[in-house]
Amino acid sequence: MTQSHGSQNIEAQNKALFHRWFGQAWNAGHYEVAHEVISPQMRVHGAGGQPVEMGPDGLIGLISTWRGAFPDGQMVSSGLIAEGDLVAALLTWRGTQQGDFYGAPASGRSVVCTSIGLDRIENGIIVDGWGELDMVGMMQQLGAMPPIGPGSSAKGQSAEWGSAEQVVAGPANGDEKAVVAAFIGAFNTGDLSSVQAEGFREYGPVYGTSDAEGAARVLGELRAAMPDLHYAVDSSVTLSEGDLVVIHGVLSGTYSGSSLWSSTPNGKSVSWTQTELLRVKSGKVLERWVCTDNMALLTQIGLLGGGA
């Protein structure tokens, strides 16, 4: 994608604002920055099931909940991309629980929680935010949830993203967004093999996936449980930089098929949100970082309280 110098300047400024927000508010506890960079009408469209009020005070409440429970907690970005008024970040939170966290008492345990954050910035102010995080995996690490579901934490495996290096955009090599649209089309037909590049890697602690075989396994399990499974991507919050694309959307289906992760089919409509970062190479997807609202999914299929 060719960008004008003006667009590049805006995107650089938006990235700088994103770094400031996480560095000062999340990592240093300087909550006053929220009133400088968050719109009073900011809309929070998703935060892994956490209740978040609108505007700066809502974000301050969210951050203070995390920092109160994990005083040594740090949010680290391993990838940041921008296009127009959108910025997305590949994030990892690490900390040691010293206080109550959504009802989970202090455990002294160290946790890793991966997430993808997506913000819309207008005139230097954040006006919309989308966030997906591996909340179930984090609570399992704290001993506050049983080891259920497909995630890496449930299997006693590393909850890290799994990609060792900083994720940096490479040169654009075609219409990356069209390639990703084809990838989602293949997802909806149940066969990703034709849209995966040789050496495809998947970084998905929420699903416990790391390669093409794992991606096919999870997709097969979901489609067997929900034969009408459909992934609808929101084009208004799709962005790309170089060979990287970020998408956000909703998966939905009717749980009328096979048992999913030891739960019992209940015939109910199920829906949950998902955000992912994909790297395109030679017309196919080479790498995929995926984060999903696993709390909503596991609740609706009856593995967690409230979904039966």
Global shape: globular
Query: How many structural domains are formed by the residues?
Result: 2
Mean pLDDT: 93
CATH topology of the largest domain: Nuclear Transport Factor 2, Chain: A
Question: Span from first to last CA?
Answer: 47 Å
Run of helices and strands: HHEHEEEEHHEEHEEEEEH
> What is the name of the CATH architecture of the largest domain?
Roll
| Low-pLDDT regions | none
> What is the CATH class name of the largest domain?
Alpha Beta
Strand percentage:
25-35%
The multimeric state of the shown protein is single chain
The counted number of beta strands is 12
The main pleated sheet reads as: 7 strands, mixed
The rounded Rg comes to 19 Å
Would you write up a description of this structure?
- The chain is an alpha+beta fold.
- The chain folds into 2 domains: 5-141, Nuclear Transport Factor 2, Chain: A, CATH 3.10.450.50; 176-300, Nuclear Transport Factor 2, Chain: A.
- Helices cover 27% and strands 34% of the residues.
- The chain contains 7 helices and 12 strands.
- Strands 6, 7, 8, 9, 10, 11 and 12 form a 7-stranded mixed β-sheet that branches. The chain has a 5-stranded mixed β-sheet with strand order 1-5-4-3-2.
- It is globular, with a radius of gyration of 19 Å.
- The mean pLDDT is 93.
